[in-house]
Amino acid sequence: MPTPRIAIIGAGPGGLTCARILQQHGITAAVHDLDASRTVRSQGGTLDMHPDSGQHALREAGLWEAFLTQARPEGKQMRLVGRDGRILFDAIPPEADTTEGNPEIDRGQLRDLLLDSLKPDTVRWGHKLIRAEALGNGTHRLHFTDGTSTDADLVVGADGAWSKVRRLLSDATPRYTGVTFVETGLNDADTRHLRLAELTGNGTMMALDNNLGFVAQRNSGGHIRVYVGMRTEEDWHQRTGLDLTDTAAVREALLKKFTGWSPDLLDFITRTDTGYTNRPLFALPVPHTWAHTPGVTLLGDAAHLMSPFSGMGANLAMLDGADLAHALVKSPTIDDAIHAYEVLLQPRSVAAAEGAAEGINSAFAHDSATQTLAHMTQHH
């Protein structure tokens, strides 16, 4: 294949994995990201890397050993707590090295690992895509908000939930799942939080019941990230005139929703160190497929946005990136590469999205405590 001009839109795990593997094979890809720099915003919580997807992609990218230096095998602990604060289920992994199971890593650490593996200037920061103009024969001209443009023989939409590249292939838009997370967090080294740190354990703690719940994740650096979840209207705060910037008012509104829950669990609301961020959860329709279009494809959330209850989002994105890169290396033309890649991508993403939809619906149901306990008991 002649040296193609490849533009990857979005510097998330999937796009960066693709760029890294292409570079290992001598193929240059430019990554365009809307953020002004790599440090402009938090990258979110912790991720567990699965052997047949995220771990596989890291090995293909030559980053497995570097990953092991930052991964946390103890992060595999899973705990279910009742609304009364009693521990109902606790899966504590045996002492083992990080090559077993699904070791955890903070999303920001993973992104830094990938970014540091790329050649300088691979990522073009501050390049927010406005539109892609088809020039014929699969070539597109990309226009960015800074006034620049570039032509590409292949545009890879790795630009997440609200992908602009997806518009070239599909009319699908993400739909609200019916569940909103309000994110907060605390420092487990603070003596005021000893009970909450103990309740969280070394991995993930969930307390789910009657369309409400808490998810607490231990991150690196002594931070516990907390998601206060509820099945509610997307505009739940507007309906009650709640100002999301008013910390005290948000706290009181959440406490009211969780009336009757254990004081220990309610402390995840009242003892926050970080304020509150409203995060309604969206997903693409299932199945999300598209007709082959020369010069364009998707990966990660742009292709298969799903609820976090799949546990597969970043893993699938990285596997997508690895598979697309290998298809480009092995195929005689870009068009052949897209065909080969999408044959792998679409069936597995549909299966994962179906599982994610089932997961969030069971986690936020009237009998979610019973369903979750049965699921954990069966799978551990």
Automatic annotation (TrEMBL):
Pfam families: FAD_binding_3. InterPro entries: FAD-bd, FAD/NAD-bd_sf, TetX_monooxygenase. GO terms for cellular component: cytoplasm. Its main location: cytoplasm. GO terms for biological process: response to antibiotic. NADPH binds at residue 41. Its EC number is 1.14.13.-. PANTHER family: FAD DEPENDENT OXIDOREDUCTASE DOMAIN-CONTAINING PROTEIN, MONOOXYGENASE ASQM-RELATED. This is Flavin-dependent monooxygenase. It comes from Streptomyces griseochromogenes.
